[in-house]
Amino acid sequence: MSDRMVRIIQILADSFLTLLEAGIKFTVPLTILSFIIGVAIAFTVAIVRVLEIKPLEGIVRFYVWIIRGTPLLVQLFIIFYGLPSIGVTLDALLSAVIGFSLSVGAYSSEIIRAAILSVPKGQWEAAHALGMSKVQALRHVILPQAIKVAIPPLSNSFISLVKDTSLAAAITVTEMFQVAQQITARTYEPLWLYTEAALIYLTFCSGLGVLQSRMEARFGRHLAR
Amino acid sequence: MIRLENVYKNFGTLEVLKDINLTVEKGETVCVIGPSGSGKSTLLRSLNHLETITSGRILIDNELIYDIKNGKAVLRSTQNRISEVCSEMGMVFQQFNLFPHMTVLENIMLAPRVVKREAVQQTREYAMHLLDKVGLKDKWDVHPSKLSGGQQQRVAIARALANRPKIMLFDEPTSALDPELVSEVLEVMSSLAKEGMTMLVVTHEMGFAKEVANRVIFMDNGEIIEENTPENLFNKPEKDRTKAFLSKII
Questions:
Q1: Within chain A, which residues score under 70 in pLDDT?
Q2: pTM
């Protein structure tokens, strides 16, 4: 075996745990926290729009429009590098969580809204005819059915988010991609190191894909036609 | 029990209900027949606010619920009041509209628990009693997707009865059923009528109308053309449009 191959294997072996550590310390928590907050925002937004709650509806549509119309990287830069000039200084991790949450919130709100709209109108009518208010109908009849429809696209968002967290590197969060960059700077083996990082991302995402299948099966049990 | 006075309904320029005047007395079973597009379903659905009328008055149990002139409410019933009114009426839909993510028993128990805040034990007992009444006691734990159309519709009837309504509204309850499943549903409806429930039924089942209805109403093009007892309407129709319709179906 050549010296170079030995050196590469050495680098990969040494870096593996460091990369994994960064993944577990930053990538995973960042993804999970941003997703939970983002979906909470998304639910609120979707319900405001479906129920057409008047003063809030305009605000919420504006929010979705702005976030969907601007690049995530630019949003992160505005929060981390831009806000300090008007007196709001947030640390890198917090900026990342805020940026990712707002992004997930906007995109996922459309997913949830579409899922709610996909529930047949007859379900609303039956709930109404039984004397339920719209909120009661949503809670007991509509949302449980909408969840099943929302799982594949929401899982997709989650899996995308895992990869989007690599953007946090640009605002100095030492998550996995940032660490890969640092090790590359020391060792000059970009192909191997970035591929190694990519494979770790791939493993995370594949695991999430399996989880998605199981959730689809569980929620879709009684809705098969 | 139900009174519609000068009810009009437009969808834009399309007139779907024209000057409807109709009364249903307590304990009566009234069937509404007529061709598609005659406004029968719209009439039914305007009683529980699934459709909003453009003008006219609707009284339920002698209380004025909807009073609209030119699209503006003279009497604005609040959302709460409308929900209350709905819970005093039961509606059975052509497409059943059972809640697929719940068992049969849960379907029936939902409204009394959530809307009337009844206690669980009491609700469950009454729900099982209703299931027994429609002949499906052993299906209490099953999901609607596992039932036949006729069974689903019978569950839907039980669900509508769970709120102990004063009035039952049926919107073409058997139109989506395979022919051999129709009679089991009509039987349940007949026994309900015999027990004295006030019922307004939109249907194509002339046999049911003849046997069970106190009165039959023929609608065409948004208007009530003729109204009479089943014997008179089916055997001695007065208006030409009634005769034309009946000749096509009997």
A1: 1, 221-225
A2: 0.88
Instruction: Indicate the helix (H) or strand (E) that contains B83.
Output: helix B79-87
* Residue carrying the six token digits 């200084």: A89
Partner-chain residue, chosen from A129, A132, A141, that has the shortest CB–CB distance to B50: A129
Q: Which residues neighbour B134 within 8 Å (Cβ) at sequence distance 6 or greater?
A: B154, B155, B157, B158, B188
Distance CA A131, CA A224 (A): 27
Residues of B in contact with A225 (CB under 8 A): 145
Number of CB pairs, chain A paired with chain B, less than 8 A apart: 70
Which token pair is A202?
């791939």
> How far is C-alpha B87 from the geometric centre of its chain's CA atoms?
13
Query: Which residue reads 């709209």 in tokens?
Result: A117
Edge-first strand listing for the sheet containing B89-92: B89-92, B167-171, B198-202, B29-33, B215-220, B223-228
Question: Looking at this protein, which amino acid is placed at residue B209?
Answer: A
Contacts of residue A48, Cβ cutoff 8 Å, sequence gap at least 6:
A56, A57, A60
Nearest CA in chain A to B143: A222
d(CA B55, CA B41): 17
With a CB cutoff of 8 Å and minimum separation 6, the contacts of B220 are B34, B35, B38, B241, B245
Cα separation of B64 and B49, whole Å?
A: 14
C-alpha distance from residue A55 to each of A46, A62, B39 (Å): 14, 12, 36
How confident is the model over A150-198, as pLDDT tens digits? 998 999 999 999 989 989 888 988 888 889 999 999 988 899 999 999 9
Residue keyed to tokens 């009364």: B23
Report pLDDT digits (tens) over B192-242.
999 999 999 999 888 899 999 999 999 999 999 999 999 999 888 888 888
